[in-house]
Write a structure and sequence with these properties.
mainly alpha
Length: 164
């Protein structure tokens, strides 16, 4: 049975226009590579077209997209052929040229995945703790603990850089 490749409907195009850049940024945080982030974002929208449940509202849809993306990123990170340590590409930062912002983002990128995910969602995507808890399917206390530990790791790195 051959599946016809119909052009995505206006709904999918609207969802793509609304969330693609945010999903790409989240994928970059997880994967650190532009190509891998593009692949993860693309796979997320393919799953939206093929397997999306009935959404209660736009926030439910957004949370579902983020969850699918983070799961795909974890799968990609778990592949044996992929290096465990990746470097963030400079052109992917979309920075305004502020070297302190770039340096801080690179420090965030160097954190373990469970810390950089919550830090990125909280500080860069402006999600409240309750929403991060829902998206990542972990307790609110786990989100708070990961934020605290991530901040501690960043503080240690920043203090170490000042001593150098």
């Amino acid at each position: 049975m051959q599946r016809s490749m119909a052009r995505p409907g206006n709904h999918v195009i609207h969802v793509y226009e609304s969330y693609a850049s945010m999903l790409f940024r989240i994928a970059m945080v997880h994967l650190g590579s532009r190509e891998d982030a593009e692949e993860a974002t693309q796979e997320t929208f393919i799953k939206l077209m093929e397997k999306a449940p009935a959404f209660q509202d736009a926030e439910h849809q957004k949370a579902w997209l983020i969850r699918v993306l983070t799961n795909h990123c974890k799968t990609m990170l778990g592949r044996g052929w992929r290096k465990r340590e990746v470097k963030l590409e400079a052109d992917a930062l979309h920075a305004t040229g502020d070297h302190e912002d770039i340096a801080l983002l690179q420090l965030v990128m160097a954190l373990p995945v469970k810390y950089k995910t919550v830090i990125h969602l909280y500080y860069y995507e402006d999600y409240p703790i309750q929403k991060i808890s829902s998206i990542l399917q972990i307790s609110e206390s786990a989100v708070k603990m990961r934020l605290q530990r991530g901040r501690q790791l960043l503080k240690l790195e920043l203090e170490g850089d000042e001593l150098s």
